[in-house]
Amino acid sequence: MEQLIEDFNLTFQLKNDAIPIQIEQKNLVNVIKDILEQLKGLSESKNKMFSFEANKEEIFLNMDARYLKRAFENLIANSIKHNPPETKIIVIVHQDLSHPRQIRVLIEDDGVGMDQETVDHLFDRYLRGTSASSNNSGTGLGMAIARQVIIAHGGDLHIDSKPQLGTQFNIIFPLELEERI
């Protein structure tokens, strides 16, 4: 119940641009590595295969690490919870300095995937996974929170998913925005 209240409060604050984001420059590579190490310890992660890649050891992003960590945790946990054993989960962080300059984070799994209707409503509040292999614990707010936090950081989030082929979350942060913060 406490988690539901906390999640509901956070989504309300994000929706109303009332979240007290405290921006500081952090190494996104380390932030995501830490998240992966933490999530690998979950019981649902026991039979999953994880891969992490980055094109640089240090990719700095102006962020509120507490909230952005929460967003990435929600996205990666979605791939863990809603897929069967032996699912491969790949996380790639890539800084592209060509035009447009951007940081791209790709979270991809080869799991059960989603039909288009589910993808279209994935960021709706209170939607919870319903696949046979899924763990239906949670508040149903995680995906909405992830999207709102990414947008609050000037980013964008796209999903590509096909049943039985897996899901890909593609997050882009423009670097031009970074220089203005």
Automatic annotation (TrEMBL):
What broad class describes the main subcellular location of this protein? Answer: membrane
Q: Which cell locations does it reside in? A: Membrane
One GO MF term attached to the UniProt entry = ATP binding
The highest taxon in the source lineage is Bacteria
Q: Could you tell me which Gene3D superfamilies the record lists for this protein?
A: Histidine kinase-like ATPase, C-terminal domain (3.30.565.10)
Catalyses: ATP + protein L-histidine = ADP + protein N-phospho-L-histidine
The cross-references to PROSITE patterns, in alphabetical order and at most eight, read: HIS_KIN
Q: Does the keyword Endoplasmic reticulum apply?
A: no
Annotated Histidine kinase domain ranges read 1-177
Recorded protein name is histidine kinase
Q: What are the EC numbers?
A: 2.7.13.3
Q: Which UniProt keywords apply?
A: ATP-binding, Kinase, Nucleotide-binding, Phosphoprotein, Transferase, Two-component regulatory system
Presence of keyword Kinase: yes
A Pfam short name: HATPase_c
The GO biological-process annotations, alphabetized, read as: cellular response to phosphate starvation
Organism in which the protein naturally occurs? Peribacillus frigoritolerans
Q: Name one GO cellular component term.
A: plasma membrane
Return the CDD domains for the record. Answer: HATPase
